[in-house]
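Q: What does the assembly look like in three dimensions?
Context provided by user:
Components: two
Sequences:
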Amino acid sequence: MRIIIDQNLCTEPERCGICLKVCAPQVFALHPEGEDTLCPEKWVVDPIWTTFCIQCDECVKYCPRHAVFVGQ
Amino acid sequence: MCEWCKKHGAGGKWYLNARNYTDDLAREIGAEEYLTVLWQNFERVYVQKHFGMSATGLKRKLELPLIGRFLRWYVDYKIHREKHLNPKDGDGHFGQVIPVEEAQLLLNMAGQNEGGIARVKCVCRKMNRNIDDYNCLAFGVLAEVATRIPRYIPETGVVKLDVDQAFDFVREMNTRGRVHTVWFEPVPFIGGLCACDYPSCTGLRMRRDFGLLAVSKAEYVCMVDYDRCVGCRTCIPRCQFGALNFSDSMGKAYISPFRCFGCGLCRDVCPEECIRLVPRQEIPGLQGEY
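A: Here is the predicted structure of the complete assembly.
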């Protein structure tokens, strides 16, 4: 499954995080950008467990910035 | 008795061996350096490349013939290794499910450290669901390390608990239906007691969805006393492991002995007190089923 998050549109995932909560198979993960950080400046959402994606499209529906794309 | 009890249990269970909580041991194995790197990079454990391979599509990779078998062996070996640990990958950080009464014994030992017991943010829930949930208890050196990293402590400041407060907290978590897990970080130092639920917990997720041994089953298994079970179904929603269901034909609760992790959550709510925790050792067919 191809899941793409447009990182230009998804600018504040740490405040939002809606996709992380609505995803039933819990495909996404939130992580700080860069390594070894005490106070990460930027957080990023990435689709990690893409094999679990059931294409329910909940993340696409709920994303307030239309940053998620799910397709073959 | 599991492999870790034999190695680090001093004749008993590994998490009931007082030496595994001591500051001396932590110093001896360099736990502070390990934990500092691990906790600063914790949320990146999924996105890190392991052995040149990312975790993306792990399920498919594990199902590959031959390569999948090697990969499974390699990941389990990496999780459980005791030397040459790479803290960024979380090597040597694995745990076991425990019932609530053993949490009390364990907290008594953990409270003796210089660092004491601190309540910190759950890394798993943050990275998996973006939930700020302060429900992990960190012991000793980890309590010191984790409270130095601003994103793991509440905005109101560090929460330190004494043994009684910690146990009250664990009991509250038990009432809310959380599974108690105790963690090596790194093996054999015991760094924390978590209140987990599937699938937000990374360890339980690894275990249930991928069959990787990041979390072992408890030393116990739950058994229903069929003479006393009245079929009230109170226990049914408590199981996180898909081991418990209501058998309509028998009119009683049914627990699969192979799926049961022995956390005892169902036992704690049974009004008839008809669910027992039986040591795995006493059941020949379940010995070694961790």
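Follow-up: Chain B is about 35% helix and 15% strand.
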